[in-house]
Predict the structure of Malic enzyme.
Amino acid sequence: MISSTRCNFLGNSGLGGCGNVCGGQRRGSGPWRVSCMSPSNDRNGSVVMETPLKEIKNEPVVEDVDNNPISGGGPRDVYGEDKATEDHSVTPWSVSVASGYTLLRDPHFNKGLAFTEKERDAHYLRGLLPPTTIPQETQVKKMIQHIRQYQVPLQRYTAMMDLQERNERLFYKLLIEHVEELLPIVYTPTVGEACQKYGDIFMRPQGLYISLNEKGRILEVLRNWPEKNIQVIVVTDGERILGLGDLGCQGMGIPVGKLSLYTALGGVRPSACLPITIDVGTNNEKLLNDELYIGLKRRRATGQEYSELIHEFMTAVKQTYGEKVLIQFEDFANHNAFDLLEKYRSTHLVFNDDIQGTASVVLAGLVAALKLVGGNLADHRFLFLGAGEAGTGIAELIALEISKQTNGPLEEIRKNIWLVDSKGLIVKSRKESLQHFKKPWAHEHEPVTSLLDAVNQIKPTVLIGTSGQGKTFTKEVVEAMASLNEKPIILALSNPTSQSECTAEEAYLWSRGSAIFASGSPFPPFEYKGKVFVPGQSNNAYIFPGFGLGLIMSGTIRVHDDLLLAASEALAEQVTEENFEKGLIFPPFTNIRKISAHIAAKVAAKAYELGLATRLPQPKDLEKFAESCMYTPAYRTYR
Ligand SMILES: O=C([O-])CC(=O)C(=O)O
Ligand SMILES: [Mg+2]
């Protein structure tokens, strides 16, 4: 790392011997960047030269600096990335240069064999690479072949992570150009397995770990992250990783995966993304008894101990990155997820992906499905298996949308939406006390204990699985849906594949080809009686990257439910006639960057309308603006 050089570009740090790495004589000719010096050095003495950033501002060394209007208003580094602008007296940041061996080792700047002859001379690379030059397009071709040679998805995942560690721009170009193929590798379902084995595959830090050991020092921990201009944080406490349960500290794979999608699908700069895992212990016995477990070996903190740590974190984030940093809560357990969202939604820019992102994507799918089944949302009856974050989040957003369409009262609309949890249908007469998020869904009905009975009695037109329990949409359940409806809508949303309520094949087979089916994890197309059925993937990955981009580019300071409805509508608009003909209620991921720009524009437009956007004046064409803001991973030329 550049940081280990302890030099700054003025070359007079007092350490001497900087050589190629940061020789002041090469100022203006090397790829300068902001880098970190050892914090202890900074605090104990004065080895860090506090380089006035403006000195290098006008000395770009890359010819095609990203012209990204949302990179913040502050000074940009020579790569078009933002510079640290904070007070240098409290943080150990300086400016140094990457060149030669260090340059090849820096994933942000490394281009591998794509370095030209001129660049090899200018940046002390001669001899460090074999003589041939291979452009990025060819590298992509080579890399996809390399990935494909692995048969096991986890090996492909590891190969992708290795690439991200080595050459970030190649990683993103590969991911963007082969998104349908690689999404199931870097994201759901393979990322689930990666989390289960994270201890084995963990190599280098991919994000920040904030544990109870850091209580009282979170500000300091945030300052250890090498990037300063953070725009999106995805944070988990690992308690409910997908449908896999408590994976403790190993949940880190999820924020890392989600943020890769923020960049690949939503065009947010990688350097603006920060994955964080909060480690308050784990209740997973297997991990507690595993001597190689990477997290805190204690049971989960709860109550005040938990909320104090989270509060310190939330406060420190705002203090460090300002109030426009988006904090995405991911895979928290129900009992914390709702409370955290409620507590921080009026003071921070927070978004819960599992409650709000999933709701927005499912609503989009349902709106699109109406084109195939007819009627309005208000004409349908909904039954959920699972009454946690996703179930109640989706239910509430559907009710909200119907209420907007019909001007009807929410309490009445909710009566057409039913939820089943582990104890059966949620009804008013249930003796045990209900958690607060389930209460709006307790309707008048006698107790019903099984899902099959609930289907037969409620007669839903739409069945949605958010239970985290695999194989719960049995043959009888799917057959009952098919006997009640000409075209039953069946969404098996739990992740990863093993937790899916049923497979695409089962849904099509058992409904004799009548089901309109989508799932959280991807399934391959299925041929039934000569017809090919292509299942849609109802995953929040459609929403959060574009949604986040919309918030960032408009400088929005709070998330309002209407923004989720706007995102949902924007996604539904992107389903084409051609998609409908295949029975699809979601567009393919191949066009996702265009879709994200569209979602971002609609979200930003709504934020301006609600007075929540602070970036003024409002750009005239928000979709064009969104596109112009998006990071593209083409290599840059170094002078
Ligand atoms: O990560 C995914 O694929 C979707 C999601 O948020 C979850 O299942 O928790
Ligand atoms: Mg999630």
Observations:
- Residues 330-331, 353-354 surround magnesium ion (ligand 2) (CB under 6 Å).
- The chain has 27 helices and 16 strands.
